[in-house]
Amino acid sequence: MLMKFGLPNADTWNTLPKMDTPVPPSPFENEFLTKFYFSTMQGTTPLTIAIVYFTSVHYLNKLIRSKQLQKAKEEEKKTDKVVKRLPAVPTAISKTSFFKFFVLLHNVLLCVYSVWTFVGMTSTIASTMGLFKMQIIPSFYEALNLNTENTTALRKLDVFFQSVCDSKNGIFSRVLSSTSKNLHNLEILGFWFYISKFYEVVDTIIILLKGRPSSLLQSYHHAGAMMCMWAGVRFQSPPIWIFVVFNSFIHSLMYFYYSLSCLHIRVPTIFKKSLTSMQITQFIVGGSFAVLHCFVWIYDVNNVNTIPGQPSTEAAKLVSCISTPDQALPVLINVAYLTPLTALFAAFYIESYFKKK
């Protein structure tokens, strides 16, 4: 076996991350995209945008609630009935056909993009596992003069973690993209998924323009996702694949649902409940699986220094999947982010489907 479970590497967790760690090389050849890549990899970029977004939303929430209260008082005077739910105060632009078409296009595009990311990421993982099973691992066994008969029957879990954790040949590497002209590696897909988190704030803008305040769940969700994806891509932490795969899958369903709503196609309540349940599940399972990477140790198949007839034991050295403090930082950020997010989603689930109307 080329993978074992053990306690996390003490040196990784006892040392502070080096924030001056060089930014990974740009995966783009285009000069403009390269400059854009390096500018977005600066920690100040997602942090500034997240803070401005979060504070702006909650400032606008106060203005909208004030207008809602005023409108509610006017309705109570006209009808002599107590308004149980604050009415929406939509802006003029939200009533136009252009706005409605834009909202539909926005949801359709994000649905298609999420499907593209999910398919691209899962196919990349499958291709990388195939590369390890058929080429890299047999070569490693041969260099050590070990029996290669069992390599074809390696457990999928063993090959999976090897392909995920190996920084040179794994899903963060450019081995596949350079050999098969396939740009679907985690550098490319992860980067664009990170950028998409900035665009997704349009969801909040739409809600505000429709005259309703944005919830804490909404603003916290978007702001935190920016920081989590930045950290994972910036420090190339292996578990970030979980965020990309799980989140793109859920978003495929979520934006499909939103698209149907824009078309006034009625969706059964069971689908909405299931969608929220899957969102909560992805946080619990995804967060737990991310932490599991800290307990995974793999054999370094890239460092084989052997003398003919004298296999080197150093070549079979175990290395931790989370091998540096920089790679550990995104794990900590994601766990810290997912814990309150799970609680917020659970509260939303109870509020929406269990409390009496």
Automatic annotation (TrEMBL):
It is a multi-pass membrane protein. InterPro entries: ELO_fam. GO terms for cellular component: endoplasmic reticulum membrane. It catalyses: an acyl-CoA + malonyl-CoA + H(+) = a 3-oxoacyl-CoA + CO2 + CoA. Keywords: Fatty acid biosynthesis, Fatty acid metabolism, Lipid biosynthesis, Lipid metabolism, Membrane, Transferase, Transmembrane, Transmembrane helix. GO terms for molecular function: fatty acid elongase activity. Pfam families: ELO. The chain crosses the membrane at residues 36-60, 101-119, 239-260, 280-299, 328-350. It is found in: Membrane. One of its GO terms (biological process) is fatty acid elongation, monounsaturated fatty acid. Its EC number is 2.3.1.-. Signal peptide: none annotated. Belongs to the ELO family. This is Elongation of fatty acids protein. The lineage of its organism: Eukaryota, Fungi, Dikarya, Ascomycota, Saccharomycotina.
